[in-house]
Amino acid sequence: MTVQHHYWQGAFIGDEEAGRRLAGLPAAVEAALATVLETETVLAACDALGTALRDPAHPVHARLAAHLPEGEDPAVLAELGGLLGRRELTRKLRRELGSATPGRLNRADPRETVYEAWAPVGLVAHIAPGNAATVAPLSIVEGLLAGNVNVLKTSSADSLLTQHLMAELAALDPTGAVAARVVVLRFPSSRQEWLRLMCAPADAVAVWGGEAAVEGVAAHVPAGCRLVEWGHRISFAYLTADAWSDTGTLEALADDVCRYEQQACSSPQVVYLDTEDEGEVFAFAERFAGVLGARPPAVVPAAAGEPDPAEAAELTTTELVARLEEHLGLTRVFTAPGGGFAEGSWRVMADTRSPLTASPLHRSVWVKPLPRKRMIATLRPMRRYLQTAGVAGGPADIAELSRTALAAGVTRVTPVGAMLNSYPGEPHDGVYALQRYSRRVAVQADPARFATTACLDDLARPVVLPPPAGPLLHKEDVQGPGRRLAREDAELYFHSGGSTGAPALSVFSYDDYDTQMHAAARGLLAAGYDPVGDRTANLFYCGGMYGSFISFFSVLERLGGVQLPLSAGPDHRATARALIDLGADTLFGMPSYLWQLLHAEADALRAYGGLRKVFYGGEHFTAEQQRTLKERFGIEVVRSITYGSTDLGPLGYQCTESSGGVHHLHADLHSMEVLDLAEDRPVAPGETGRLVFSTHARRGQQLGRYVIGDLGREIPGRCACGRQAPRFELRGRTGDVMRVATYFLNHRRFLALAEEQGGHRGELQIRLEGLGGTGVRERLTVRVERERTGATDPDRLREVFLAGYPELRSAVAERLLELVVEAVDGASLDRSPASGKLLAVVDTR
After folding, report:
1. Domain AMP-dependent synthetase/ligase, which positions (predicted)?
2. 239 & 225 share domain
């Protein structure tokens, strides 16, 4: 039976098949790159695998534990699981590539039609080390995050952990795109033909190891291919006089030396003292030897245990040479009693010469003098090998010495005691891995034809996200008392406007908020906003933790647009004067407030004649109201600024081909379903149902399959604007449907009849009251905004409602309902105190 220890694009294969496929690797790479790998696909699969690895009882954990190298602590799987979590990988993407979706061609500057993205280099060949179980799979994950096809070589002595890890990861991706981009081969370095075949078509080759290993691989790297070296590095500690006399500093330094027995590149091999006094060097070495000698043997991975014969020989030679030089007054050697190489043995070698000397490791440390004025001259010759400097001293010393160490060639500076610590997204050996596996690409487009295109990918292909799963969530599930966010995820708090009940509290991380504001900014460009020419008055309501004003301040900031942050206020005259004096031509705000402002200051604003665009949110301008804005005020563009919710953020946007309640879905952030009004099943295509959204970009909280409370229908076909994002049409809120007597009545029906049959152009609100007694049980009052010309006729509108709404007519005829129509001033209509939004239905029963 053929041993199948190679993993090739979703299948385990043997040597013969692997050799055959290697010959056709270029064609396999081209086929894989022809399909799109969404960043979200990688994040979702990695997060699911990370969750399984952190659970010892999970079947995936059990399957992979069987493939751990002999002597490897199973805890390494939990460690790997932590590194594969969505939080860590998203942070890595943001830090290294600037975005959680770095592959999308967005405008680098919203004021220019120049689109930039990070694109994969193509094929990355990874030559993994044989002594670190997590390095190989994490290297492939980095390649996947950058969108590449990845072929990885493991040592012939390695277990099949990486192969099976990648198989488990691919199984968690329903699209198959991950599997298509992963090949893991196990063969010895002596098989040079295989090494040549995997490197020949590569666009980047990543190799771990010393100079000999790098040279061996470099011989197979073709011209123009990027060679990414993750070689051996050397690190040191640097102590000022105040620090080396402090017992706590010595204890921290001993932690760095003993942790992993100096097997990490960031372990200190040399301790430099900021002095020229040889006596101080010898005295410190003796003191530090006492601290090191008090340390018990560490519990470390098998790879960092007792030295092998070659390492033991190096230890012996180094110590003997240092002891011989004691007779010359150059060195002093302090060792553990009895010497030897058992775990817990140590040696401190004081040397009066400053040049950097590699340690034989296993708790072996050089102590040398190095005045800070000579640091650059002494260390710079070794700059290719320098990695970490652990610096101890006062704040001013640390600031100065950090700069000097970096100038000498060091790539990272840490406190003493934290040299082996790292943080998510930290650059490795002075570079970001994801940038080394990516290319920065740009597309310049015609400003006239692409003025409203914020992302080129919207025109090229639809975004495909993992399908939504799990139970439906309602407002009480998201806003309920059982909802708890980790403190590090709860950074920004917003209240809803409270138009459908008590204000709800929504919580965001700043990363999520930034993602959403960029999405809303792209949607605003699609709707026709011009960040170069428009002068915008932000007239949303502000205060009480209400988010609209703050959010659109942030949107305009990201667009680089001119902004007048006035906010909505009761003094319409002062607001109108500011608009005129400051030359505003674009208004952002709630329809209710903008309608009141424009009519209250109609004479001044019509005389000004400078208003050209209105972008509204939170409610809708009816068709008649939009006609009024254009005819009476000369406004050319009236469009939705966004469709969204306080919980989920921006959900949809209008394009220049959209009108009414039609929006495109922010498909890079959300998935959408349309479910039946009564049953939790999809409606037929084009039918109206409950809108259900699943968001894929929220840190620390799951907002999948959220029943938002709005009604709508999906619009089939591709929009005339060319975007491939799905479209939907809003059809009101579930709260607009009123149970009155034995009938269901809809606020939108009243509004349509008032406009189409009654010629009404203003606002309309319905008030419900219970009457009690033995007569008519309920009263429905339609309150319509009185026109300034006095043309509003309540009696005529009552006739229109009764004639055009059979269910209403029946309820009135059966004396189940009393219908009243009132013409009132717009200011007297009930509104949300936080947002100013008109309350469509006020139910006092």
Report:
1. 481-695
2. no
